[in-house]
Amino acid sequence: MRWLTLVLGMAILAGVASVVIVFRDGSMGSGNASAGQTAPSTPMIGSPTHSEFTDPCGTFDTAATTPYAVSGYWLIPTSDPCTWRSQLQAIHRLGGDTVVRLGFGLSARETDDEGQVLEASTPEGKEPKPDARYARCVENGLSCMKAAEKELQAANAGNSITRTYVYRTDERFGPGIFRCPQMEHEVVVGDAVFFRLLAPEDGSDDPTCDFTREGRGYHLILVSAGAKDSLSELLDLGDRFGIKVFPALPLAPRDPEESTRADPRHIGTLTTLTRRILQDYGDRFKGRESLGGVYQPFELQLRDWPDPSKVQTLQVYAEQHLIVEQELPDKPILVSPYIDSRRRVKYTSTPSQVARGFKALARTGVEIIAPQDGRGTGKVGLFWPNWKNKPVDDSLKPVVGESTYATAYYGSTRDYYRAMSQARQELVQEGVQVDLWANVEAFEPSTSTENCGRQGTRGRTDKPRLDTQVTLAAPYVSKIISYMWSDFFTCGSPSLSQEIAADWDRPIPIEAQRRARQIQDGLEVRGYHIGSAKVTLSWPGLDTPRVVDSATVGWHDTTPIQGLPAGTEKIWIPVDWATVPDDVWIKVEVTSADGRKSAEPVYYHNTG
Prior knowledge:
This protein starts with 9 loop residues before the first helix and ends with a strand. The protein contains 15 helices and 28 strands. Helices cover 24% and strands 22% of the residues.
Protein backbone atom coordinates (compact mmCIF):
# COMPACT_ATOMS: atom_id res chain seq x y z
CA MET A 1 0.00 0.00 0.00
CA ARG A 2 2.74 5.16 0.29
CA TRP A 3 5.05 10.97 0.90
CA LEU A 4 6.64 19.10 4.91
CA THR A 5 7.68 21.02 7.32
CA LEU A 6 6.50 21.27 10.92
CA VAL A 7 7.61 24.52 12.35
CA LEU A 8 7.78 25.00 16.08
CA GLY A 9 10.15 27.08 18.12
CA MET A 10 12.73 25.32 20.22
CA ALA A 11 11.17 26.76 23.32
CA ILE A 12 7.91 25.04 22.42
CA LEU A 13 9.66 21.75 21.76
CA ALA A 14 11.29 21.92 25.16
CA GLY A 15 7.84 22.12 26.72
CA VAL A 16 6.46 19.12 24.91
CA ALA A 17 7.50 15.71 26.16
CA SER A 18 8.99 13.59 23.44
CA VAL A 19 6.64 11.33 21.55
CA VAL A 20 6.93 9.18 18.49
CA ILE A 21 4.69 7.12 16.38
CA VAL A 22 5.99 3.83 15.24
CA PHE A 23 4.63 0.79 13.63
CA ARG A 24 5.91 -1.84 15.97
CA ASP A 25 7.56 -2.61 19.28
CA GLY A 26 9.24 -5.88 18.56
CA SER A 27 6.23 -8.02 19.35
CA MET A 28 3.35 -5.72 18.49
CA GLY A 29 2.65 -8.02 15.59
CA SER A 30 2.24 -11.05 17.88
CA GLY A 31 -0.91 -10.02 19.65
CA ASN A 32 0.65 -7.87 22.34
CA ALA A 33 -1.78 -5.30 23.66
CA SER A 34 -2.33 -2.43 21.30
CA ALA A 35 -3.14 0.86 22.93
CA GLY A 36 -6.44 1.09 21.17
CA GLN A 37 -8.19 -2.04 22.32
CA THR A 38 -9.16 -1.50 25.96
CA ALA A 39 -12.37 -0.16 27.41
CA PRO A 40 -12.50 3.62 27.77
CA SER A 41 -12.43 3.43 31.55
CA THR A 42 -9.27 1.32 31.52
CA PRO A 43 -5.81 2.78 30.91
CA MET A 44 -4.42 1.57 27.59
CA ILE A 45 -1.67 -1.01 27.83
CA GLY A 46 1.60 0.62 26.90
CA SER A 47 -0.03 4.03 26.82
CA PRO A 48 1.02 7.01 28.93
CA THR A 49 -1.04 7.85 31.97
CA HIS A 50 -3.97 10.16 31.25
CA SER A 51 -2.81 13.74 31.12
CA GLU A 52 -3.31 17.02 29.33
CA PHE A 53 -0.71 19.31 27.84
CA THR A 54 -1.04 22.71 26.26
CA ASP A 55 0.91 24.40 23.49
CA PRO A 56 0.06 27.07 20.88
CA CYS A 57 -1.94 24.46 18.95
CA GLY A 58 -4.34 23.97 21.85
CA THR A 59 -4.89 21.65 24.80
CA PHE A 60 -4.54 17.98 23.99
CA ASP A 61 -5.96 15.03 25.88
CA THR A 62 -3.84 11.87 25.82
CA ALA A 63 -6.59 9.50 26.97
CA ALA A 64 -7.99 7.11 24.36
CA THR A 65 -11.77 6.95 24.60
CA THR A 66 -13.06 5.12 21.50
CA PRO A 67 -10.56 2.35 20.62
CA TYR A 68 -11.26 0.73 17.25
CA ALA A 69 -9.94 -2.42 15.57
CA VAL A 70 -7.64 -0.45 13.27
CA SER A 71 -4.58 0.63 15.27
CA GLY A 72 -2.26 2.25 12.70
CA TYR A 73 -2.54 4.81 9.93
CA TRP A 74 -0.55 6.41 7.11
CA LEU A 75 0.08 10.14 7.29
CA ILE A 76 0.95 12.65 4.58
CA PRO A 77 3.70 15.10 5.61
CA THR A 78 2.33 18.56 6.27
CA SER A 79 3.69 22.09 6.66
CA ASP A 80 1.08 23.09 9.25
CA PRO A 81 2.76 23.01 12.70
CA CYS A 82 -0.51 22.10 14.43
CA THR A 83 -1.73 19.46 12.01
CA TRP A 84 0.56 16.71 13.36
CA ARG A 85 -0.76 17.36 16.86
CA SER A 86 -4.43 17.28 15.96
CA GLN A 87 -3.94 14.19 13.78
CA LEU A 88 -2.03 12.25 16.41
CA GLN A 89 -4.53 13.12 19.10
CA ALA A 90 -7.42 11.98 16.92
CA ILE A 91 -5.59 8.77 15.99
CA HIS A 92 -4.80 8.12 19.65
CA ARG A 93 -8.45 8.62 20.63
CA LEU A 94 -9.41 5.83 18.23
CA GLY A 95 -6.82 3.55 19.83
CA GLY A 96 -4.11 4.11 17.25
CA ASP A 97 -0.60 3.24 18.40
CA THR A 98 1.24 3.38 15.07
CA VAL A 99 1.69 5.88 12.26
CA VAL A 100 3.49 5.41 8.98
CA ARG A 101 4.91 8.51 7.34
CA LEU A 102 4.93 8.87 3.59
CA GLY A 103 8.22 10.15 2.27
CA PHE A 104 10.14 11.37 -0.75
CA GLY A 105 12.08 9.99 -3.65
CA LEU A 106 15.71 10.16 -4.74
CA SER A 107 15.90 11.54 -8.27
CA ALA A 108 18.72 11.71 -10.80
CA ARG A 109 18.74 15.12 -12.54
CA GLU A 110 20.54 16.79 -15.40
CA THR A 111 22.42 20.06 -14.80
CA ASP A 112 23.21 22.97 -17.11
CA ASP A 113 26.60 24.59 -17.77
CA GLU A 114 26.33 26.64 -14.56
CA GLY A 115 25.59 23.54 -12.51
CA GLN A 116 21.94 24.42 -12.02
CA VAL A 117 19.71 21.43 -11.38
CA LEU A 118 17.11 21.16 -14.15
CA GLU A 119 13.45 20.36 -13.71
CA ALA A 120 12.53 16.70 -13.70
CA SER A 121 10.27 16.95 -16.74
CA THR A 122 9.98 19.41 -19.60
CA PRO A 123 7.12 19.79 -22.11
CA GLU A 124 8.00 18.42 -25.54
CA GLY A 125 9.73 21.02 -27.68
CA LYS A 126 10.69 23.20 -24.70
CA GLU A 127 14.15 23.80 -23.28
CA PRO A 128 14.60 22.43 -19.75
CA LYS A 129 14.58 25.10 -17.06
CA PRO A 130 16.42 25.23 -13.74
CA ASP A 131 14.44 23.80 -10.86
CA ALA A 132 13.55 26.80 -8.67
CA ARG A 133 13.80 24.76 -5.48
CA TYR A 134 17.47 23.87 -6.01
CA ALA A 135 18.43 27.09 -7.77
CA ARG A 136 18.51 28.70 -4.32
CA CYS A 137 21.46 26.54 -3.31
CA VAL A 138 24.38 28.90 -3.87
CA GLU A 139 27.86 28.94 -2.26
CA ASN A 140 30.28 31.84 -2.78
CA GLY A 141 28.47 32.92 -5.93
CA LEU A 142 28.48 29.41 -7.43
CA SER A 143 25.72 26.85 -7.68
CA CYS A 144 26.14 24.13 -5.06
CA MET A 145 27.06 21.67 -7.79
CA LYS A 146 29.85 23.90 -9.16
CA ALA A 147 31.04 24.76 -5.66
CA ALA A 148 31.35 21.07 -4.79
CA GLU A 149 33.15 20.32 -8.05
CA LYS A 150 35.59 23.20 -7.49
CA GLU A 151 36.52 21.88 -4.05
CA LEU A 152 36.89 18.33 -5.33
CA GLN A 153 39.23 19.44 -8.09
CA ALA A 154 41.25 21.53 -5.67
CA ALA A 155 41.97 18.28 -3.81
CA ASN A 156 42.82 16.41 -7.02
CA ALA A 157 42.48 17.77 -10.54
CA GLY A 158 41.21 14.40 -11.70
CA ASN A 159 38.13 14.53 -9.49
CA SER A 160 34.77 15.29 -11.10
CA ILE A 161 31.04 15.15 -10.47
CA THR A 162 29.67 12.63 -12.90
CA ARG A 163 26.03 12.71 -11.80
CA THR A 164 23.75 14.86 -9.67
CA TYR A 165 20.87 13.57 -7.54
CA VAL A 166 18.27 15.52 -5.58
CA TYR A 167 16.24 14.53 -2.56
CA ARG A 168 13.50 16.64 -1.03
CA THR A 169 12.42 16.24 2.60
CA ASP A 170 10.94 18.20 5.50
CA GLU A 171 13.46 16.69 7.90
CA ARG A 172 16.57 18.55 9.06
CA PHE A 173 19.38 16.18 9.71
CA GLY A 174 22.19 16.44 12.21
CA PRO A 175 25.95 16.09 11.64
CA GLY A 176 25.57 12.30 11.54
CA ILE A 177 24.56 12.57 7.90
CA PHE A 178 28.08 13.65 6.91
CA ARG A 179 30.83 11.13 6.33
CA CYS A 180 33.46 13.53 5.00
CA PRO A 181 32.80 16.98 6.52
CA GLN A 182 35.77 18.51 4.67
CA MET A 183 33.67 18.15 1.50
CA GLU A 184 30.13 17.78 2.86
CA HIS A 185 28.13 20.33 4.80
CA GLU A 186 24.88 22.13 5.37
CA VAL A 187 24.08 25.15 3.19
CA VAL A 188 21.64 27.74 4.54
CA VAL A 189 20.36 30.40 2.16
CA GLY A 190 17.74 32.59 3.81
CA ASP A 191 14.98 30.22 4.91
CA ALA A 192 16.17 27.44 2.60
CA VAL A 193 18.27 24.60 3.98
CA PHE A 194 20.34 22.17 1.89
CA PHE A 195 22.70 19.30 2.63
CA ARG A 196 25.56 18.71 0.20
CA LEU A 197 26.64 15.07 0.16
CA LEU A 198 29.24 13.36 -2.04
CA ALA A 199 29.50 9.68 -2.86
CA PRO A 200 32.03 7.85 -5.03
CA GLU A 201 30.28 6.82 -8.22
CA ASP A 202 31.12 3.17 -7.55
CA GLY A 203 28.72 3.24 -4.56
CA SER A 204 31.45 2.44 -2.04
CA ASP A 205 30.81 5.47 0.21
CA ASP A 206 34.55 5.35 0.93
CA PRO A 207 35.12 5.91 4.68
CA THR A 208 38.72 7.08 4.19
CA CYS A 209 37.52 10.44 2.83
CA ASP A 210 40.76 10.70 0.88
CA PHE A 211 39.98 13.01 -2.03
CA THR A 212 43.66 13.60 -2.90
CA ARG A 213 45.17 10.18 -3.64
CA GLU A 214 43.62 9.65 -7.06
CA GLY A 215 41.16 11.34 -9.34
CA ARG A 216 37.69 9.81 -9.05
CA GLY A 217 34.17 10.38 -10.25
CA TYR A 218 31.63 11.40 -7.59
CA HIS A 219 27.87 11.65 -7.36
CA LEU A 220 26.50 14.79 -5.75
CA ILE A 221 23.39 14.30 -3.60
CA LEU A 222 21.72 17.65 -3.01
CA VAL A 223 19.14 17.46 -0.24
CA SER A 224 16.48 20.16 0.10
CA ALA A 225 15.63 19.96 3.79
CA GLY A 226 13.32 21.55 6.32
CA ALA A 227 14.07 24.56 8.48
CA LYS A 228 12.91 22.44 11.44
CA ASP A 229 13.11 18.69 11.79
CA SER A 230 9.63 17.27 11.36
CA LEU A 231 10.67 13.79 12.47
CA SER A 232 11.91 15.07 15.83
CA GLU A 233 8.55 16.74 16.35
CA LEU A 234 6.67 13.59 15.37
CA LEU A 235 8.74 11.49 17.73
CA ASP A 236 8.09 13.97 20.53
CA LEU A 237 4.36 13.63 19.90
CA GLY A 238 4.72 9.87 19.65
CA ASP A 239 6.27 9.79 23.10
CA ARG A 240 3.42 11.91 24.44
CA PHE A 241 0.64 9.79 22.94
CA GLY A 242 2.28 6.37 23.13
CA ILE A 243 2.47 6.08 19.34
CA LYS A 244 5.23 4.52 17.32
CA VAL A 245 6.38 6.26 14.13
CA PHE A 246 7.67 4.61 10.96
CA PRO A 247 9.44 7.23 8.79
CA ALA A 248 9.91 6.37 5.14
CA LEU A 249 13.22 5.32 3.66
CA PRO A 250 14.31 7.27 0.58
CA LEU A 251 12.20 6.08 -2.33
CA ALA A 252 14.27 4.46 -5.08
CA PRO A 253 14.37 6.06 -8.56
CA ARG A 254 11.96 4.44 -10.99
CA ASP A 255 12.89 2.58 -14.13
CA PRO A 256 12.24 4.98 -17.02
CA GLU A 257 11.00 2.07 -19.15
CA GLU A 258 8.59 0.75 -16.52
CA SER A 259 7.65 3.09 -13.69
CA THR A 260 6.31 0.30 -11.47
CA ARG A 261 9.87 -1.07 -11.12
CA ALA A 262 12.75 0.32 -9.09
CA ASP A 263 15.85 1.11 -11.15
CA PRO A 264 18.82 -0.93 -9.86
CA ARG A 265 21.30 1.29 -11.73
CA HIS A 266 21.02 3.79 -8.87
CA ILE A 267 21.53 1.31 -6.03
CA GLY A 268 24.93 2.67 -5.00
CA THR A 269 23.72 6.24 -4.54
CA LEU A 270 20.42 5.13 -2.98
CA THR A 271 22.18 2.99 -0.39
CA THR A 272 24.66 5.79 0.34
CA LEU A 273 21.83 8.24 1.08
CA THR A 274 19.98 5.59 3.08
CA ARG A 275 23.10 4.82 5.14
CA ARG A 276 23.75 8.48 5.89
CA ILE A 277 20.17 9.17 6.99
CA LEU A 278 20.03 6.09 9.21
CA GLN A 279 23.41 6.89 10.75
CA ASP A 280 21.98 10.29 11.64
CA TYR A 281 18.88 8.64 13.11
CA GLY A 282 21.13 6.39 15.16
CA ASP A 283 23.02 9.39 16.51
CA ARG A 284 20.02 11.55 17.32
CA PHE A 285 17.28 9.05 18.19
CA LYS A 286 19.12 6.26 19.94
CA GLY A 287 16.87 4.75 22.58
CA ARG A 288 13.77 6.62 21.40
CA GLU A 289 10.81 4.33 21.99
CA SER A 290 8.64 6.25 19.57
CA LEU A 291 10.87 5.37 16.61
CA GLY A 292 9.15 2.10 15.77
CA GLY A 293 11.03 1.22 12.61
CA VAL A 294 11.27 2.37 9.01
CA TYR A 295 8.88 2.12 6.07
CA GLN A 296 9.87 0.91 2.61
CA PRO A 297 7.75 3.17 0.38
CA PHE A 298 8.39 1.65 -3.06
CA GLU A 299 5.22 -0.26 -3.91
CA LEU A 300 5.43 -3.80 -5.22
CA GLN A 301 2.79 -6.20 -6.50
CA LEU A 302 2.88 -9.56 -4.74
CA ARG A 303 3.08 -12.37 -7.26
CA ASP A 304 4.90 -15.63 -7.94
CA TRP A 305 8.11 -14.59 -9.67
CA PRO A 306 9.85 -17.35 -11.67
CA ASP A 307 13.22 -16.09 -10.42
CA PRO A 308 12.97 -13.53 -7.58
CA SER A 309 16.71 -12.82 -7.83
CA LYS A 310 16.09 -11.16 -11.19
CA VAL A 311 13.24 -8.91 -10.03
CA GLN A 312 14.60 -5.36 -10.08
CA THR A 313 12.55 -4.03 -7.19
CA LEU A 314 13.49 -7.00 -4.99
CA GLN A 315 17.14 -6.40 -5.83
CA VAL A 316 16.85 -2.79 -4.70
CA TYR A 317 14.92 -3.85 -1.59
CA ALA A 318 17.61 -6.31 -0.56
CA GLU A 319 20.44 -3.77 -0.91
CA GLN A 320 18.57 -0.99 0.86
CA HIS A 321 17.32 -3.29 3.63
CA LEU A 322 20.86 -4.51 4.28
CA ILE A 323 21.77 -0.92 5.19
CA VAL A 324 18.88 -0.79 7.68
CA GLU A 325 20.08 -4.01 9.26
CA GLN A 326 23.58 -2.57 9.61
CA GLU A 327 22.65 0.87 10.92
CA LEU A 328 19.41 0.28 12.88
CA PRO A 329 19.56 -3.43 13.73
CA ASP A 330 16.87 -3.19 16.40
CA LYS A 331 14.31 -1.44 14.17
CA PRO A 332 12.01 -3.39 11.81
CA ILE A 333 11.33 -2.63 8.17
CA LEU A 334 7.66 -2.34 7.18
CA VAL A 335 6.51 -2.83 3.60
CA SER A 336 2.97 -2.74 2.20
CA PRO A 337 2.73 -4.53 -1.17
CA TYR A 338 -0.46 -4.73 -3.17
CA ILE A 339 -2.48 -7.64 -4.52
CA ASP A 340 -4.42 -7.89 -7.77
CA SER A 341 -6.98 -10.69 -7.94
CA ARG A 342 -8.85 -9.68 -11.11
CA ARG A 343 -9.26 -12.51 -13.58
CA ARG A 344 -9.63 -10.31 -16.66
CA VAL A 345 -6.37 -8.42 -16.18
CA LYS A 346 -2.88 -9.62 -17.11
CA TYR A 347 -0.25 -10.33 -14.47
CA THR A 348 -2.67 -10.89 -11.60
CA SER A 349 -2.27 -13.71 -9.10
CA THR A 350 -4.12 -16.45 -7.27
CA PRO A 351 -3.88 -16.76 -3.47
CA SER A 352 -1.24 -19.52 -3.74
CA GLN A 353 0.85 -17.43 -6.13
CA VAL A 354 0.68 -14.45 -3.77
CA ALA A 355 1.75 -16.70 -0.90
CA ARG A 356 4.90 -17.64 -2.82
CA GLY A 357 5.55 -13.96 -3.53
CA PHE A 358 5.14 -13.24 0.20
CA LYS A 359 7.98 -15.65 0.93
CA ALA A 360 10.26 -14.04 -1.65
CA LEU A 361 9.55 -10.59 -0.23
CA ALA A 362 10.24 -11.72 3.33
CA ARG A 363 13.68 -12.91 2.27
CA THR A 364 14.71 -9.33 1.35
CA GLY A 365 15.05 -8.54 5.05
CA VAL A 366 11.65 -7.06 5.90
CA GLU A 367 10.21 -7.89 9.31
CA ILE A 368 6.65 -6.62 8.79
CA ILE A 369 4.60 -7.21 5.65
CA ALA A 370 1.25 -5.39 5.60
CA PRO A 371 -0.39 -6.25 2.26
CA GLN A 372 -3.01 -3.85 0.98
CA ASP A 373 -6.37 -5.63 1.10
CA GLY A 374 -7.30 -4.33 -2.37
CA ARG A 375 -10.93 -3.43 -1.65
CA GLY A 376 -10.37 0.31 -1.99
CA THR A 377 -8.91 -0.06 -5.47
CA GLY A 378 -11.35 -2.80 -6.43
CA LYS A 379 -8.52 -5.23 -7.18
CA VAL A 380 -9.80 -7.71 -4.59
CA GLY A 381 -13.37 -8.32 -3.38
CA LEU A 382 -14.90 -8.84 0.04
CA PHE A 383 -16.96 -12.03 -0.20
CA TRP A 384 -17.44 -15.45 1.36
CA PRO A 385 -17.13 -18.78 -0.49
CA ASN A 386 -20.92 -19.20 -0.50
CA TRP A 387 -21.26 -15.75 -2.13
CA LYS A 388 -19.08 -16.41 -5.15
CA ASN A 389 -21.99 -16.52 -7.61
CA LYS A 390 -23.53 -13.29 -6.34
CA PRO A 391 -23.18 -10.03 -8.34
CA VAL A 392 -20.30 -7.84 -7.21
CA ASP A 393 -21.00 -4.79 -5.09
CA ASP A 394 -22.09 -1.75 -7.13
CA SER A 395 -19.01 0.25 -6.11
CA LEU A 396 -16.79 -2.44 -7.70
CA LYS A 397 -18.45 -2.28 -11.10
CA PRO A 398 -16.30 0.63 -12.39
CA VAL A 399 -13.32 -1.72 -11.91
CA VAL A 400 -14.61 -5.19 -12.85
CA GLY A 401 -17.86 -4.44 -14.68
CA GLU A 402 -21.13 -6.33 -14.40
CA SER A 403 -19.92 -9.60 -12.96
CA THR A 404 -20.19 -12.15 -10.22
CA TYR A 405 -17.45 -12.46 -7.64
CA ALA A 406 -16.35 -15.79 -9.10
CA THR A 407 -15.96 -14.42 -12.63
CA ALA A 408 -14.32 -11.17 -11.43
CA TYR A 409 -11.76 -12.47 -8.91
CA TYR A 410 -9.49 -15.44 -8.26
CA GLY A 411 -10.30 -15.17 -4.57
CA SER A 412 -11.51 -12.95 -1.77
CA THR A 413 -9.56 -10.85 0.69
CA ARG A 414 -9.93 -13.65 3.22
CA ASP A 415 -8.50 -16.23 0.81
CA TYR A 416 -5.37 -14.14 0.24
CA TYR A 417 -4.67 -13.39 3.90
CA ARG A 418 -5.23 -17.04 4.79
CA ALA A 419 -2.69 -18.12 2.17
CA MET A 420 -0.13 -15.53 3.32
CA SER A 421 -0.66 -16.55 6.95
CA GLN A 422 0.23 -20.12 6.05
CA ALA A 423 3.29 -18.89 4.13
CA ARG A 424 4.37 -16.88 7.18
CA GLN A 425 4.14 -19.95 9.40
CA GLU A 426 6.28 -21.91 6.96
CA LEU A 427 8.87 -19.12 6.91
CA VAL A 428 9.04 -19.09 10.71
CA GLN A 429 9.74 -22.83 10.65
CA GLU A 430 12.63 -22.07 8.27
CA GLY A 431 14.00 -19.47 10.67
CA VAL A 432 12.73 -16.40 8.77
CA GLN A 433 10.91 -14.14 11.22
CA VAL A 434 8.25 -11.92 9.68
CA ASP A 435 4.96 -10.46 10.92
CA LEU A 436 1.82 -10.33 8.78
CA TRP A 437 -0.36 -7.24 9.17
CA ALA A 438 -3.34 -6.10 7.11
CA ASN A 439 -3.54 -2.71 5.42
CA VAL A 440 -7.27 -2.06 4.92
CA GLU A 441 -7.91 0.64 2.32
CA ALA A 442 -10.24 3.35 3.64
CA PHE A 443 -11.50 4.47 0.24
CA GLU A 444 -13.75 3.48 -2.66
CA PRO A 445 -12.50 2.87 -6.22
CA SER A 446 -14.24 6.02 -7.45
CA THR A 447 -16.68 8.66 -6.30
CA SER A 448 -18.94 11.19 -7.94
CA THR A 449 -20.03 12.92 -4.76
CA GLU A 450 -17.08 13.74 -2.55
CA ASN A 451 -13.41 14.41 -3.13
CA CYS A 452 -11.05 13.88 -0.24
CA GLY A 453 -8.33 16.50 -0.35
CA ARG A 454 -5.39 15.29 -2.42
CA GLN A 455 -6.87 11.87 -3.18
CA GLY A 456 -8.07 12.54 -6.71
CA THR A 457 -11.24 10.78 -7.84
CA ARG A 458 -11.31 8.32 -4.96
CA GLY A 459 -13.65 8.99 -2.08
CA ARG A 460 -13.57 7.72 1.46
CA THR A 461 -15.57 4.71 2.53
CA ASP A 462 -17.87 4.38 5.54
CA LYS A 463 -17.60 2.53 8.82
CA PRO A 464 -19.74 -0.50 7.86
CA ARG A 465 -17.44 -1.17 4.89
CA LEU A 466 -14.37 -0.76 7.09
CA ASP A 467 -15.87 -3.12 9.69
CA THR A 468 -16.39 -5.65 6.91
CA GLN A 469 -12.74 -5.36 5.84
CA VAL A 470 -11.71 -6.05 9.42
CA THR A 471 -13.99 -9.09 9.55
CA LEU A 472 -12.49 -10.63 6.41
CA ALA A 473 -8.80 -10.04 7.24
CA ALA A 474 -8.44 -10.16 11.02
CA PRO A 475 -8.29 -13.94 11.69
CA TYR A 476 -4.99 -14.23 9.80
CA VAL A 477 -3.03 -11.15 10.84
CA SER A 478 -1.52 -9.77 14.03
CA LYS A 479 -2.31 -6.08 13.46
CA ILE A 480 -4.61 -3.98 11.28
CA ILE A 481 -3.56 -0.63 9.86
CA SER A 482 -5.14 1.59 7.23
CA TYR A 483 -4.27 3.72 4.25
CA MET A 484 -4.78 6.50 4.99
CA TRP A 485 -5.63 9.00 7.71
CA SER A 486 -5.17 12.14 5.68
CA ASP A 487 -7.52 12.58 3.92
CA PHE A 488 -9.86 9.58 3.91
CA PHE A 489 -10.53 9.56 7.66
CA THR A 490 -10.83 13.34 7.93
CA CYS A 491 -12.95 14.52 4.99
CA GLY A 492 -16.72 14.87 4.92
CA SER A 493 -19.25 15.62 7.64
CA PRO A 494 -19.35 13.51 9.62
CA SER A 495 -15.88 12.28 8.73
CA LEU A 496 -15.00 8.60 8.81
CA SER A 497 -13.08 9.11 12.06
CA GLN A 498 -16.18 10.74 13.58
CA GLU A 499 -18.34 7.84 12.39
CA ILE A 500 -15.97 5.44 14.12
CA ALA A 501 -15.90 7.47 17.35
CA ALA A 502 -19.71 7.45 17.48
CA ASP A 503 -19.96 3.70 16.87
CA TRP A 504 -16.61 2.36 18.03
CA ASP A 505 -17.91 -0.53 20.14
CA ARG A 506 -20.30 -2.10 17.64
CA PRO A 507 -19.56 -5.84 17.48
CA ILE A 508 -17.17 -6.99 14.73
CA PRO A 509 -17.07 -10.81 14.53
CA ILE A 510 -14.11 -12.20 12.59
CA GLU A 511 -14.38 -15.98 12.85
CA ALA A 512 -16.64 -18.82 14.02
CA GLN A 513 -15.46 -22.36 14.76
CA ARG A 514 -17.02 -25.46 16.26
CA ARG A 515 -15.58 -25.95 19.77
CA ALA A 516 -16.36 -28.15 22.75
CA ARG A 517 -16.29 -26.60 26.20
CA GLN A 518 -15.93 -29.14 28.98
CA ILE A 519 -18.60 -31.78 28.16
CA GLN A 520 -20.73 -29.58 25.93
CA ASP A 521 -20.32 -28.93 22.21
CA GLY A 522 -20.89 -25.51 20.74
CA LEU A 523 -19.61 -22.63 18.65
CA GLU A 524 -16.79 -20.23 19.44
CA VAL A 525 -17.02 -16.75 17.91
CA ARG A 526 -14.01 -14.45 17.85
CA GLY A 527 -14.07 -10.72 17.27
CA TYR A 528 -14.16 -7.25 18.77
CA HIS A 529 -16.67 -5.97 21.36
CA ILE A 530 -18.65 -9.22 21.39
CA GLY A 531 -19.15 -9.66 25.13
CA SER A 532 -22.80 -10.08 26.24
CA ALA A 533 -23.83 -10.42 22.60
CA LYS A 534 -26.79 -12.27 21.17
CA VAL A 535 -25.78 -14.71 18.46
CA THR A 536 -28.20 -15.53 15.64
CA LEU A 537 -27.64 -18.73 13.65
CA SER A 538 -29.34 -19.37 10.32
CA TRP A 539 -28.85 -21.50 7.24
CA PRO A 540 -30.75 -22.37 4.05
CA GLY A 541 -33.89 -24.36 4.88
CA LEU A 542 -34.14 -23.18 8.49
CA ASP A 543 -37.53 -21.54 8.97
CA THR A 544 -36.77 -19.60 12.15
CA PRO A 545 -33.25 -18.40 12.97
CA ARG A 546 -31.90 -19.55 16.30
CA VAL A 547 -31.01 -16.79 18.75
CA VAL A 548 -28.67 -17.52 21.66
CA ASP A 549 -27.93 -15.02 24.44
CA SER A 550 -24.23 -15.51 25.19
CA ALA A 551 -24.50 -13.53 28.43
CA THR A 552 -27.06 -16.02 29.79
CA VAL A 553 -25.98 -19.43 28.52
CA GLY A 554 -22.54 -18.77 27.05
CA TRP A 555 -19.03 -17.83 28.08
CA HIS A 556 -16.93 -14.71 27.41
CA ASP A 557 -13.12 -14.59 27.42
CA THR A 558 -11.10 -11.37 26.95
CA THR A 559 -7.70 -13.04 27.29
CA PRO A 560 -5.45 -11.85 24.42
CA ILE A 561 -5.36 -14.43 21.64
CA GLN A 562 -1.85 -15.33 20.52
CA GLY A 563 -1.14 -14.16 16.98
CA LEU A 564 -4.33 -12.11 16.57
CA PRO A 565 -4.71 -8.32 16.78
CA ALA A 566 -4.90 -6.82 20.24
CA GLY A 567 -8.48 -6.39 21.44
CA THR A 568 -9.71 -9.62 19.88
CA GLU A 569 -11.86 -11.62 22.31
CA LYS A 570 -14.08 -14.66 22.13
CA ILE A 571 -17.46 -15.93 23.21
CA TRP A 572 -18.80 -19.47 23.26
CA ILE A 573 -22.38 -20.63 22.93
CA PRO A 574 -23.87 -24.15 23.15
CA VAL A 575 -25.12 -25.67 19.88
CA ASP A 576 -26.92 -28.97 19.37
CA TRP A 577 -25.05 -30.00 16.26
CA ALA A 578 -27.28 -33.05 15.76
CA THR A 579 -30.01 -30.66 14.64
CA VAL A 580 -27.79 -28.85 12.12
CA PRO A 581 -27.62 -30.31 8.58
CA ASP A 582 -24.27 -31.33 7.19
CA ASP A 583 -22.57 -29.29 4.48
CA VAL A 584 -24.45 -26.06 5.12
CA TRP A 585 -23.00 -22.58 5.50
CA ILE A 586 -24.19 -21.26 8.85
CA LYS A 587 -24.66 -17.51 8.95
CA VAL A 588 -23.51 -16.20 12.34
CA GLU A 589 -24.78 -12.72 13.21
CA VAL A 590 -23.74 -10.91 16.37
CA THR A 591 -25.85 -8.23 18.05
CA SER A 592 -24.79 -6.14 21.03
CA ALA A 593 -26.81 -5.88 24.21
CA ASP A 594 -28.16 -2.51 23.05
CA GLY A 595 -29.40 -3.95 19.75
CA ARG A 596 -26.63 -2.97 17.31
CA LYS A 597 -25.93 -5.71 14.77
CA SER A 598 -22.48 -6.23 13.30
CA ALA A 599 -22.00 -4.78 9.81
CA GLU A 600 -20.96 -8.18 8.50
CA PRO A 601 -21.81 -11.70 9.70
CA VAL A 602 -19.32 -14.53 9.68
CA TYR A 603 -19.98 -17.94 8.14
CA TYR A 604 -19.18 -21.39 9.40
CA HIS A 605 -19.20 -24.32 6.98
CA ASN A 606 -20.61 -27.31 8.85
CA THR A 607 -18.78 -30.18 7.22
CA GLY A 608 -20.05 -32.67 9.78
